[in-house]
TrEMBL record:
Membrane topology: Lipid-anchor
GO CC annotation, single: plasma membrane
Family from the record: Belongs to the outer membrane factor (OMF) (TC 1.B.17) family.
Secretion signal, residue range per the UniProt entry: 1-25
Pfam families, per the entry: OEP (PF02321)
Keywords: Lipoprotein, Membrane, Palmitate, Signal, Transmembrane, Transmembrane beta strand
Compartment(s): Cell membrane
Organism ancestry: Bacteria, Pseudomonadati, Acidobacteriota, Terriglobia, Terriglobales
InterPro entries in the cross-refs: MdtP/NodT-like, OMP_efflux
GO molecular function, one term: efflux transmembrane transporter activity
Full protein name: RND efflux system, outer membrane lipoprotein, NodT family
Length: 495
């Protein structure tokens, strides 16, 4: 009897060893398709070049600095931008989402290891008098003391866990890229709002001079009308211009308040308490290196996010295909069991059981096939989204380059117009001083000069906004090499 038990145990151990060897032998099987980055239409330069072809996208090193707003040499802007990283709530939410994605990957990696459960219990029960048929008894009470430790492990035979971990890793990288994109958009939005604010302030200064000039012309025209040297039509025309300029002042006040509120929210502050003194320092436009599409556009964080989401969708196909294979589990239970507390943890009270098990779905009405088709379609959607994101990025760079080129040419012409109007005003003032022209001519020339200055100020603001939007379209100095590695996702502690 003892010999048979020994043989039985030996056969059992051999079976377990064989099952383990089989598990490791087939653990390299990967049912999912190999990932290949989708191709994108790539032109050799940021112009309407002929012969564009489909090639794999790549990420190159950045040439823009990360704190790109420093290139405008505005101390106030630098101070405001520094607050974005610390207090912007949209960025804080994106950061929290990234940490959640990292935690999800660590949870997925836990499936590589066995799970153990300890479930001690004490059960007191009474057996009824008629509970055992054929045996007469008056009933009795008994207690059962258990201290079982259960462990189970599902070897990753079909790469389900590996694909799940890969999917979680790609999702974490996509979340990191999304956070970088949110940060870029927040900094760019603040810079744009700041330049709009300064542009409005410049417009307000010019408009104050304009209103004062129209008021002077109104007084002169009214004086001439009273002495019969003008008519009601001229008086009404001047009054309408004065009222229109005054109305424009009110609109500019509202615009400045809105840009100020926008800056406050981007900085994570209450708009009701945020204040900013008007600025007077000139803002210089930086020279932005654009490079070529293959070198620069692939540095955009939104493109990196779309590409990582494409990789995640590909990994999910492998997870879905692993459902076609049986689930193999190695499990065991050991512990102590006794009817007496005094004997609970004695060696004779020990028990154990162990062995492998397998489960294979024989019929599911096509659920697994449909699941695989679902993830294939999601992968196709991710590919299309990646390509569309890249095409949109090309368009945005081209749009801003065209805008900057047109604005530069227009501003040169407008500056020439301002200079010509200034010379005309100076000449009119000279003629008025010599008694050759009436003062109303001086006012008219002054109003024309102010109008041209206002147009120039508008063009300057548009140039600054287009410059910011170009930097935003180029990725703002971000680089795909900043995406976290597996080690960084798993081991770096969350603050």
């Amino acid at each position: 009897m003892r010999r048979n038990t020994s043989i039985s145990r030996g056969a059992f151990y051999k079976g377990v060893l064989l099952a383990g060897c089989l598990a490791f032998a087939v653990a390299g099987c990967a049912p999912g398709p190999a990932y290949r980055r989708a191709t994108v239409p790539l032109a050799p330069a940021y112009q309407e070049a002929m012969g564009a072809q489909w090639v794999p996208a790549s990420s190159e090193s950045a040439t823009l600095r990360e704190d790109w707003w420093m290139q405008y040499h505005d101390a106030t802007l630098n101070r405001l931008e520094a607050q974005v990283d610390a207090s912007n709530q949209t960025l804080a939410a994106a950061t929290a989402n990234y940490f959640a994605a990292r935690a999800a990957m660590r949870a997925a990696r836990a499936q590589y290891w066995p799970a153990a459960t300890l479930a001690p219990s004490i059960t007191q029960q009474r057996i009824a008098a008629i509970a055992i048929p054929g045996i007469k008894n008056t009933g009795f009470e008994t207690a059962e003391y258990q201290f079982p430790l259960t462990a189970s492990w599902e070897p990753d035979l079909w790469a389900r866990v590996r694909k799940t971990v890969a999917s979680s890793f790609y999702a974490a990288q996509a979340s990191a890229a999304e956070r970088a994109n949110v940060r870029l958009l927040a900094h760019a939005a603040l810079a744009a709002a700041y330049f709009e604010l300064r542009g409005v302030e410049e417009q307000q200064c010019i408009l104050q001079e304009t209103v004062h000039a129209w008021q002077q012309e109104m007084d002169v025209t009214r004086h001439l009308y009273r002495h019969g040297l003008s008519n009601e039509e001229a008086l009404a025309a001047v009054e309408s211009q004065l009222k229109a300029s005054q109305a424009q002042e009110s609109l500019l006040y509202s615009s400045r308040a809105q840009y100020l509120h926008s800056i406050a929210v981007l900085m994570g502050e209450s708009p009701s308490r945020f204040k900013l003194e008007p600025g007077s320092e000139p803002i210089s436009l930086p020279v932005t290196p654009t490079g070529v599409p293959a070198e620069l556009l692939q540095r955009r964080p939104d493109i990196a996010e779309a590409e990582r989401m494409m990789a995640q969708a590909n990994a999910q196909i492998g997870v879905a295909r692993s459902a076609y294979f049986p689930n193999v589990t190695l499990s065991g239970t050991a512990g102590f069991q006794s009817l007496s507390a005094a004997n609970w943890f004695l060696w004779p009270s020990r028990f154990w059981s162990a062995g492998p098990s397998a489960a294979e779905t024989l019929f599911d009405a096509g659920a697994r096939r449909a699941n695989v088709q679902q993830y294939r379609s999601l992968y196709d959607a991710a590919v299309a989204n990646y390509r569309q994101t890249t095409l949109t990025a090309f368009q945005q760079v081209e749009d801003q380059l065209a805008a900057l080129h047109a604005l530069a040419a227009t501003r040169v012409q407008q500056q020439a117009a301002v200079e010509a109007a200034s010379r005309a005003l100076s000449e009119t003032q000279t003629r008025y001083a010599a008694g050759l022209d009436p003062y109303v001519n001086v006012l008219t020339a002054q109003i024309t000069w102010l109008s041209y200055r206002q147009n120039e100020a508008t063009l300057q603001t548009q140039q600054q906004i287009a410059s910011v939007q170009l930097i935003e379209a180029l990725g703002g100095g971000w680089n795909a090499s900043e995406l976290p590695s597996r080690k960084q996702v798993v081991h770096i502690k969350t603050p």
